[in-house]
């Protein structure tokens, strides 16, 4: 029995320790019940119980206690071991009739457990007090704005740093699911969080009760901002359920996935199904799509200067916008779609050439926007009172080949280029290559390339070659710019879009449904570019415009709307409801030339 229990105890400790190490190495998902620490704790506890079994069989041999009672006495002494209350002399005394080698192994093993068990207890208690201390700080620190992040990562820290720059004495930052690991990057994130006096909880954002806080009027802002977008959505759904009735509560859900809108809408509908109405649900939910946000703010803030401003006038007086999109991932696809409606303006024509390595890039985009790419509209500049554009998607094109070089050189004079290959190094190299090629051709288009790393972006600003010649590349989309207070919380384009949406709908519907949000954003962007292009009569109220001004603005707006709806996958087709549209089928009976619209529909395009 002595030998068998010793071997079993060693085996248990080895198995549980190995499992804890493996779980740690594979970066287990935090917030689960089983953790590496708990596995190690359980392994030591079970090993100690097994070691005590033969000792108490010997010491209680002359008593009336059975195996059941002796087993629980073993558990009792295991607990004493963790509480620094064990008696080593008792163990030595009861090691009876044990061979010398096994005696030494037993006592040495027990000596290790006598030290290891209290250390584990101390670590557990320390972690408890650490969370308790964080909770006390959260409850009592007098801040009027609390910002709670579901994870400590580059994005959440960039946003927190941006928020800390303004009103930092009135803001409290909380990071959840934080583990101070040995990895260098993780350690640096924790240290940077401490610099802004942030609170770090080890618990998941869902498991902490944030509803109560002993400071009157506190605004709670939650950000589900982890690397796993599906987890962001799931956390958001649970937070909506927990906090739906709390005033002064905002939830920002970071996700580019289509399912986000469906699941968040379902969460709100579930709230209504349990008897809650729209007015009783107080939490405000906003979806943060970094791809859409980057394209939207680029067009809103710089589109007129960089895209319209670079257009080249041909012999007939028409200004040509010839755009090149490199990479048809999320950013490239979004920009291609957006340019189709953004460039709808009297006196301008847009041609877009997109390149991608994917051999199916063209048919994928056509599937996404079937009517936008149909021969009936794409490339047709002779159709009156409708959107005019030409989009060509070139598949199987590697930017590092002469095939790409020849294709670029054969295009009409490029006025704008957008590079989004999903990798900083590729984007930078391709943007530099494009500048070289355009220099050889003798023209100077605007080049914008995505660079995620903020330090790289700063270092590349006004970059020159060895002769001091500037590359004139506009690097956009870095972490600090994309996750800042100005973009996430106080976006100019969102403010303008919401103002337009409120003319016909409720604020909750603007944030809740992606269709309403994107449609209003596109409308706000184009309204701004109409003003900057000084469209005759745009500065006047609709009733004050001349008939000629009124019709011209209506045609421009309807052409813009047609291109936008087609870029969202809508087609002209049959209808199933009284409004003349079927949004589930993405069909709309107003996707026709302006002159074919009923008078009532024409008047909707005044603004």
Structural account:
The protein is an alpha/beta fold. It contains 22 helices and 15 strands. The strands form three sheets. Strands 7, 8, 9, 10, 11, 12 and 13 form a seven-stranded mixed beta sheet that branches. The protein has a six-stranded parallel beta sheet with strand order 3-2-1-4-5-6, sandwiched between helices. A hairpin with a 5-residue loop joins strand 7 and strand 8. Helix 1 packs antiparallel against helix 2, helix 2 packs across helix 3 and helix 20 packs across helix 21. The longest helix has 41 residues. The chain starts with a helix and ends in a 5-residue tail after the last helix. The mean pLDDT is 86.
Short description:
This protein is an alpha/beta fold and 607 residues long. It has helices at 2-25, 36-59, 67-82, 88-93, 100-140, 154-164, 184-195, 229-243, 259-273, 290-308, 330-342, 361-368, 402-410, 424-441, 454-460, 479-482, 485-488, 492-501, 507-512, 514-532, 547-567, 599-602, and strands spanning 145-149, 171-175, 199-200, 219-224, 249-254, 284-288, 312-313, 319-326, 348-355, 390-394, 416-419, 446-450, 473-476, 581-582, 587-588. Strands 7, 8, 9, 10, 11, 12 and 13 form a 7-stranded mixed β-sheet that branches.
What would the keywords be for this entry?
607 residues, alpha/beta, 22 helices
């Amino acid at each position: 029995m002595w030998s068998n229990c010793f071997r079993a105890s060693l085996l248990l400790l080895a198995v549980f320790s190995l499992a804890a190490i493996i779980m740690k190495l594979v970066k287990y998902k935090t917030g689960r019940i089983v953790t590496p620490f708990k596995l190690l704790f359980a392994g030591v506890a079970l090993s100690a119980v097994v070691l005590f079994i033969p000792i108490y069989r010997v010491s209680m041999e002359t008593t009336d206690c059975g195996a059941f009672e002796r087993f629980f006495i073993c558990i009792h002494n295991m607990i004493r071991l963790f509480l620094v209350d064990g008696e080593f002399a008792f163990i030595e005394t009861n090691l009876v009739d044990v061979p010398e080698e096994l005696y030494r192994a037993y006592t040495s093993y027990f000596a290790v457990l006598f030290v290891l068990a209290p250390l584990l207890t101390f670590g557990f208690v320390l972690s408890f007090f650490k969370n308790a201390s964080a909770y006390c700080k959260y409850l009592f620190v007098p801040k009027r704005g609390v910002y709670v992040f579901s994870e400590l990562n580059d994005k959440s820290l960039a946003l927190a740093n941006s928020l800390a720059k303004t009103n930092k004495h009135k803001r409290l930052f909380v990071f959840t699911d934080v583990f101070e690991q040995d990895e260098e990057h993780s350690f640096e994130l924790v240290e940077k969080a401490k610099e802004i006096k942030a609170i770090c909880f080890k618990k998941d954002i869902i498991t902490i009760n944030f509803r109560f806080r002993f400071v009157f009027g506190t605004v709670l802002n939650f950000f589900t901002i982890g690397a796993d977008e599906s987890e962001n959505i799931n956390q958001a759904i649970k937070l909506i359920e927990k906090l739906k009735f709390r005033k002064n509560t905002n939830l920002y859900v970071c996700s580019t996935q289509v399912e986000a809108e469906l699941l968040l809408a379902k969460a709100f509908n579930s709230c209504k199904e349990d008897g809650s109405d729209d007015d009783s649900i107080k939490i405000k939910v906003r979806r943060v799509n970094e791809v859409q946000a980057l394209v939207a703010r680029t067009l809103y803030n710089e589109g007129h200067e960089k895209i319209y401003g670079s257009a080249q006038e041909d012999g007939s007086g028409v200004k040509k916008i010839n755009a090149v999109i490199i990479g048809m991932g999320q950013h490239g696809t979004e920009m291609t779609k957006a340019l189709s409606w953004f460039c709808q303006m009297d006196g301008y024509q847009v041609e877009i050439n997109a390149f991608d390595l994917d051999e199916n890039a063209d048919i994928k985009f056509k599937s996404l926007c079937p009517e936008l790419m149909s021969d009936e509209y794409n490339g047709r500049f002779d159709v009156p009172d409708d959107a005019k554009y030409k989009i060509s998607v070139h598949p199987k094109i590697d930017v590092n080949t002469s095939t790409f070089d020849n294709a670029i050189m054969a295009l009409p004079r490029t006025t704008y280029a957008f590079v989004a290959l999903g990798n900083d190094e590729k984007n930078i190299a391709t943007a530099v290559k494009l500048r070289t090629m355009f220099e050889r051709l003798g023209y100077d288009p605007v080049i914008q390339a995505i660079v995620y790393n903020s330090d790289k972006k700063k270092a590349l600003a006004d970059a020159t070659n060895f002769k001091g010649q500037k590359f004139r590349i506009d690097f956009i989309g870095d972490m600090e710019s994309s996750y800042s207070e100005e973009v996430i919380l106080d976006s100019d384009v969102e403010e303008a879009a919401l103002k337009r949406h409120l003319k016909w709908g409720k604020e909750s519907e603007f944030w809740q449904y992606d269709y309403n949000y994107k449609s209003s954003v596109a409308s706000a962007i184009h309204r701004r570019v109409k003003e900057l292009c000084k469209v005759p009569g745009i500065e006047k109220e609709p009733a004050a415009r001349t008939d000629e001004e009124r019709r011209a603005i209506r045609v421009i707006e309807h052409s813009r709307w047609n291109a936008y709806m087609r870029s969202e996958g809508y087609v002209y087709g049959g209808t199933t409801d009284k409004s003349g549209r079927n949004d589930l089928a993405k069909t709309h009976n107003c996707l026709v030339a302006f002159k074919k619209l009923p008078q009532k529909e024409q008047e909707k395009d005044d603004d």
